[in-house]
Structure formats: structure tokens, C-alpha cells
Write a structure and sequence with these properties.
Length: 519
């Protein structure tokens, strides 16, 4: 009578995602284990595969399933075949714990690479091999970390790319960050808008992101405020990064920046500055002037609402201050908005602004050119001064015997390094005029020439921008007499000062005529 073959299971593991993708690691391990089973006359009844799991971990899905299988067939003493001792574990502690768990579950560990035994010599060899495997894992981790650190120090970001960037293989660089459009342009507009006060709070940046169809949102169609804060605080967008965990200070990246470092610093200063009033959540297309129209009697913003009539609803503004003489007195929305549009029509410069933008840009270019040498020298002096200060703090750290002092010096060095980056960025731009300046100037003068056109043709956000750009404070409205004198913003006040047709941009030498030398 033929004796039945002893049953066996195979355990295979690979830790690298590439090995999982290519499939070579698991298949080759299983092949060798099956050849060993055939040689030992063992019947393979199950194969347990661990894909992309580190050998330093004990709690693994396939190990759990295998141990459960062994417990169910404990009386049969199933043989567990592994290709190599490192496949079971990559650490001495993990190896011993898994070895004991397999034994307690009724399994018998075997391998074509090592003889597992209970005698002292076999256990010594087993423990030595497990220690060597652990050393190899640690050494591999160190080598990977060193390679990654070296690449970071060379200006290549190697971690997960933030929104607005993606990893792409480039000739001569390997994988590096490149702009991911249209997200990069959306984020650039948001960051520039926040720095320039187009968006006064992170909440307004959040609303801007939510209005962009291409920007990723959650199931409710919203963008979490924390994601907005992460974007506003992400130094990587400026073309620079730091990685203190690996001792890497501020480093200039090889990737294309979305904003300048100077703009990033402005954003940080704004975030750390005084808190501003959050954007109103109740502003809608129905009442674009909500929150900007105040009662002439009490100076408090008027409430806007819909009143139900016999056959329809009607929009109104009204004062809600009980002690005010206008309390409860409603004004039709059409009256307030029509009066406002008439007010905007009257806000025009005294002189034509056509060609003014070109003149300003021309003068700015000439000014830049004339000041180039002076500015360049000043910036170089600042750069050298920062270098000397950094050297002084480094010298102090060497002789300091107080950890508090050392920490303080390191913090000041870090700040000086950021200042140095800012100076270097200015040095790179010294003498050059921003390529977008002409377009920006022309757009600004078009708006100054006709804010009414922007109001009637724009969406809600454009209308809110018109309000902020045209008036320095909210408008007071009297229900009988209409709007009181409006407080215009500085650009409109300056434009209205041009009262004669000979008005033009003041040349750089000033208003007074040049004086002869010696006077």
C-alpha cells in the first residue's frame, strides 16, 4: 500500500513594487520551492504570496492566512517551504517570532537554502543568517536613503509631487517635477491672487478653487480648507524646498517654479499677519452689493432680502438697526443698484488714459536701466553681509555650550538663508522688467477708464473686485436722497487730479525744473 505524501504549503514574499509589477520575484521563488517539494516528495496544497510587503513587518495578510490554514490542519503537521530565510523575515526579532508562530500552529519550516534544526549548531546558523538578512535590509535602506538625499541636495524633488506638479522623465535629469496643467495655472492664479489681496482670506481661495472645474474636489464638490492651507504654505511652489529630517536646508530646485520666492514670502507674511474678517457666505448674484451698502443713518450694512407679495417675490434692502431713524424702511433693490450704476458711470478720469500704460512702462524700463548699477551693487553688499552673519553664527555654534543658544543660532541661520535666497532672486531679476507688466498696466488702465463696463459685464467675483478696487470704504445710502459722497480708492483719486488736457506721466526728475549745477 502506497503511503500518502506529506502536505506542504509555499510562502513567497517580495517587498519591491517593481518585483510585483514584473512578476519575476514571486514566480521564481515558487518554482524553486516546488522543485524542493518534488525532491522531498511533498504535496503542495496551497501557495501564500505576499506582494510589496516589507520583511521587517510581522503583521502581514498572507502570513495570517497561512497560520490560520496551519491551525486548521494542525494534526497533519503541514510543511512550510520558503525559498530563503530572508523571505520569511528581514529582521532577527521578526524571524524568531514568525518561526515560533509557525511551530505553535503545527507547521514545520523547511527551505532549499538552509536546514532548520533544533540542535544548537543549526539554531546558531539560522540566527546568524537572520542577522545577516537584517543587516542587508538596514544597509539597503541606508543606501536608498543616501541616494535619495543626494538627489534632493542636487535640486531634484524625489517625494510625492504636490498638486500642480507631476513627475516626468526628462533627458539628462531623470524623473523630475514638471508643471501639471491646468492645475499649475489654477494654483498660480490663486497664490498670486492671495498675495495681491484679490483673495483676502483662505476662505476666498477655497471658493476660487471650487469654481474651477479642473480642480479636484470631494464628493460634495467642495475643497477642504486644510488643502488650501497646505497649498498656501507649500514652499516647493517657489522653486525652493527644505527637508530638515535629512539635514537639508533651503535648496533651489531644478523644477520650474509656479511663483517667485518673494511672492511666497509675501503669502507667509500675510498668513502670519493680522486676521481679516472672513468672506461673507451669503453674497449671491441676487444681491452683489450685500455687505457693501450701509445705512446713512447708522452706518451699519443694510440687510438684503426677498419679500413675498401676492403673486411674486420682490428684492429689497432695509435697515435693521432699531435705534436708527430708517429702521424697517425698505428700499427696492432696483433703486439701489440703478443709483449705483449711475454712480459708476460718473467715476471716470478727467483725461483720456489711452497710451498712459505704454508711457508708464517705458519710464519704468528707463528707470530700471538707470538704477541697474546702483541696485546691483546694493544687492551684492546685502548678499555678502548675510554670508558674514551666517559665518559668525556658525562660529558661535562651535564654541557655544548651551543647547538653548545653539538652537537660537540655528534658527537665525535658517532665517538668514531664506533672506539670502530672496536677495539672490532679486539679483537674478535686477535690471529686467517683468514681461507681464505691459499687459497688467494696460488692464489696470482699462479698468480705471471704465469701471462701469466691468461691473455690468462681469460675474459676481468681478463685481466684488470692482467694489474693492473703486471705493476705499462701503457706500452710505439714504433712502430718499440716494448715495452720499463716495470715498474713492487712491488710483481713482489720482486719475481725477489730471484736470487739464496737458496732464501726463510725471518724469523721474520730479515736478520742479532742473537747476544749474552749483545752486
Amino acid at each position: 500500500m502506497t503511503q500518502p505524501m506529506q502536505k506542504a504549503v509555499i510562502y513567497c514574499r517580495v517587498s519591491s513594487p517593481d518585483q510585483v509589477k514584473n512578476g519575476h520575484g514571486l514566480s521564481s521563488q515558487e518554482t524553486r520551492c516546488r522543485e524542493f517539494a518534488k525532491y522531498r516528495k511533498l504535496e503542495v496544497v496551497e501557495v501564500f504570496q505576499e506582494e510589496g510587503i516589507s520583511g521587517g513587518l510581522i503583521d502581514r495578510p498572507a502570513i495570517k492566512r497561512m497560520l490560520e490554514f496551519l491551525r486548521k490542519h494542525k494534526r497533519e503537521q503541514i510543511v512550510v517551504i520558503i525559498d530563503d530565510i530572508s523571505r520569511l523575515a528581514r529582521g532577527l526579532k521578526a524571524h524568531l517570532e514568525l518561526r515560533m508562530a509557525i511551530q505553535q500552529a503545527g507547521g514545520v519550516l523547511q527551505s532549499p537554502s538552509i536546514e532548520f534544526g533544533d540542535d544548537s549548531d543549526s539554531q546558531l546558523v539560522e540566527n546568524l543568517l537572520a542577522s545577516v538578512s537584517q543587516h542587508q535590509r538596514q544597509k539597503n535602506a541606508e543606501q536608498v536613503k543616501n541616494r535619495m538625499r543626494a538627489r534632493l541636495m542636487s535640486g531634484y524633488w524625489i517625494l510625492c509631487p504636490p498638486r500642480g506638479y507631476k513627475m516626468e522623465k526628462m533627458d539628462g535629469h531623470g524623473k523630475m517635477l514638471v508643471r501639471d496643467e491646468p492645475l499649475a495655472s489654477i494654483i498660480q492664479e490663486a497664490l498670486e491672487g492671495f498675495a495681491s489681496d484679490r483673495f483676502t482670506t483662505p476662505v476666498e481661495v477655497k471658493a476660487f478653487f471650487e469654481s474651477q472645474p479642473a480642480f479636484p474636489k470631494d464628493r460634495k464638490g467642495e475643497v477642504h480648507l486644510q488643502r488650501v492651507m497646505d497649498i498656501l504654505n507649500r514652499q516647493l511652489y517657489s522653486g525652493y524646498y527644505e527637508y530638515p529630517e535629512w539635514g537639508i536646508g533651503i535648496t533651489k530646485g531644478k523644477h520650474e517654479p509656479i511663483i517667485s520666492f518673494e511672492l511666497f514670502r509675501q503669502i507667509q507674511d500675510k498668513l502670519k499677519g493680522r486676521a481679516k474678517v472672513p468672506a461673507r457666505a451669503d453674497i449671491s448674484e441676487d444681491f452683489p452689493l450685500r455687505g457693501f451698502i450701509v445705512c446713512d443713518g447708522c452706518g451699519i450694512p443694510m440687510k438684503s432680502c426677498w419679500t413675498k407679495g401676492r403673486s411674486a417675490k420682490y428684492p429689497y434692502y432695509l435697515c435693521q438697526t432699531k435705534d436708527c431713524e430708517h429702521y424697517g424702511k425698505s428700499v427696492k433693490r432696483d433703486y439701489i443698484e440703478t443709483d449705483f450704476e449711475n454712480l459708476l458711470r460718473k467715476i471716470t478720469p478727467s483725461v483720456p488714459l489711452e497710451g498712459m500704460a505704454d508711457k508708464m512702462v517705458k519710464i519704468l524700463k528707463e528707470t530700471k536701466a538707470s538704477q541697474h548699477g546702483e541696485n546691483l551693487s546694493d544687492l551684492k553688499n546685502q548678499f555678502q553681509l548675510i554670508d558674514r552673519k551666517i559665518e559668525q553664527f556658525l562660529d558661535r555654534i562651535v564654541v557655544a555650550d548651551s543647547q538653548i543658544l545653539i538652537t537660537s543660532y540655528e534658527r537665525q541661520i535658517k532665517q538668514l538663508e531664506r533672506d539670502r535666497v530672496l536677495i539672490q532672486e532679486k539679483l537674478d531679476k535686477c535690471g529686467r522688467v517683468d514681461s507681464t507688466l505691459e499687459e497688467t498696466a494696460r488692464t489696470a488702465f482699462e479698468f480705471l477708464a471704465n469701471p462701469y463696463e466691468r461691473w455690468v459685464s462681469g460675474d459676481l467675483k468681478t463685481k466684488r473686485l470692482v467694489l474693492k478696487a473703486t471705493f476705499s470704504r462701503p457706500l452710505a445710502y439714504h433712502r430718499r436722497h440716494g448715495y452720499r459722497t463716495a470715498a474713492l480708492s487712491l488710483p481713482f483719486l489720482l486719475c481725477r487730479e489730471f484736470s487739464d488736457t496737458k496732464s501726463e506721466v510725471v518724469p523721474r526728475r520730479g515736478l520742479e525744473p532742473p537747476r544749474p549745477c552749483g545752486h
